[in-house]
Each structure stands twice: as C-alpha cells, then as structure tokens.
Amino acid sequence: KERPNYASSDCAAILLKSNKEAKYANSILNEKKDSYMINECSAKNKFVVIELCNDILIDAIVIGNFELFSSTTKLFKVSLANKFNYHNNKWTTLSYFQAVNSRDIQVFKVDNPVMYARYVRIDFISNYGFESFCPLSLLRIHGITMMEEYKADEYPDLTLNSNNDEDSMKENIKDFREKSVNEDNKQQINFHLDYLRLKYNHEKDEIDKDQPVQENIYKTIMRRLTILENNSTASIIYLQEQNKMLDHYF
C-alpha cells in the first residue's frame, strides 16, 4: 500500500465508463470499506474504464472483494490505451489474470508490461459462486512513470559513455599517427581516419536496432542528444587531425 495507487480518486483518477448494470462504480476509486461497486453476476459484459492520474508502465494490479454472501471475481482481462473514445476505442491487451476464491486483497504482478498508458479497461469474465451480485471493493493499479524509469536508469546499455568513446578514439588516432610519419603514408592516414570516423558513427546508429516497443521519451531525448554530441566531437577530432597533417606536410 506504500506504493502510489494511480487508480485512486486521491490523485484525480476518473471512472469513465462501466456496464449499465454496475452500480456505485466510482467506489472502486477510493478505499472506504463501507462502499463498493456492485454488479449483477448475470450481466454479459461486465467492465470498467478508468483514466489513471498519470501515464505509467503497469507492473501490478490489486483487487479485493470483502462483501459476504456475494460471488467473487475469477477471470478478468486488463487492456490499455493511450487515448479514449466513448464510442469506438482501440485497446491493447495487457494480460488475463485469474483470482482465487478469497475475500482477501489479491496482488497480480505484470510480467511483461506492454506500454505506457493512461486508460485502463478491466473486463470481468467469470466469477466464483452462484450469488446474484459480484461486488468489487478495492482496486489499485501500480506502476512507474517515464520520469521514474529514466531516473532509475533500468537500461544502461542505451546510454553512451561519451568520455570513454572520445578517449578511445583519440588514442586510436594518436597511435596510428605516430606510426605514419612520411609522405608515402599520407593516403593511408586519411583512409584510416575516415574509417575511424565512420565506425564511430556506425556504433552510435546501432543503438536504434534494439529499442523496446515503446521507449521512454526522456531516454529517447537524452540518447539522441548524446549521439549528436558524440558525433560533433568525432567531427572536431577528425578536423583537428586533418589540420595537423596539413601543417606537417605543407
């Protein structure tokens, strides 16, 4: 419970839609034990649509039904969307979850988060028991925001170490330059410098091939700025070496 609940009315989450048989659906956005959403178990299409208070990468969903003499949720489906349209909305399935027949709080971990999303749809597919009503007393949705993921730096391989790259390139150029000091090697020097520059840029471009399905926007910005900065550094080093060679030979 210490983690932020992005499906709470305390952080301005909103219940946008539910099946017509559902009553007091807004109750699932708060954790008052004397309030709950109540649904007819016989309803064919039981669901709720919630606008979270932030775009998050969902990693856990918590539900609970504390009401006696009622049926409890068995199988439910969670879907996500970045935009919501009341009449026709495209949803991406996050996962199906199966609860146990219990009146305790149940936590469902998400093994494969699909995308950052603000809109969540939960379809209640089946239930335990044969009571007339299927209440839901509690709903929590946990996850991490883009900024939190960026700060945690969960994908360090996407970030380039510009200092190491620059030092390595300078060392390679210096070593080769020391071995080539006469006029006959001038063409070979130029060729090797071009090779180093192209290889340096190619290694930066290779990063784009292994990105996750939906990359964190903050990491995208920082990665592109780093690549731009490193490419500029490579160009400066290349021009400096060219000037040194011209001064040496002319």
Briefly, what is this?
By secondary structure, the chain is of the alpha+beta class. It has helices spanning 146-152, 162-179, 186-205, 217-249; strands at 14-18, 46-64, 72-81, 92-98, 106-109, 116-128, 138-144. The N and C termini lie far apart (73 Å).
Describe this entry's structure for a reader.
With 250 residues, this protein is of the alpha+beta class. It has two domains: 9-144, Galactose-binding domain-like (Jelly Rolls, Sandwich), CATH 2.60.120.260; 152-249, no CATH class. The chain has helices at 146-152, 162-179, 186-205, 217-249, and strands spanning 14-18, 46-64, 72-81, 92-98, 106-109, 116-128, 138-144. Strands 1, 2, 3, 4, 5, 6 and 7 form a seven-stranded antiparallel sheet that branches. Helix 2 packs parallel to helix 4. Mean pLDDT is 78; it is low at 157-163, 180-184 and 207-212.
Strand content: 25-35%
Question: So what's the overall shape?
Answer: elongated
**Structural class, judged by helices and strands?**
alpha+beta
CATH topology of the largest domain: Jelly Rolls
* Largest sheet data: 7 strands, antiparallel
How many DSSP helices?
A: 4
Radius of gyration: 29 Å
Distance between the termini: 73 Å
- Name the CATH superfamily assignment of the largest domain: Galactose-binding domain-like
Helix content: 25-40%
Number of strands: 7
Number of domains: 2
Provide the CATH top-level class of the largest domain: Mainly Beta
Mean pLDDT, to the nearest integer, reads 78
Q: SSE order in H/E notation?
A: EEEEEEEHHHH
Which architecture of the largest domain does the CATH hierarchy give at level 2?
Answer: Sandwich
Poorly predicted runs of 5 or more residues: 157-163, 180-184, 207-212
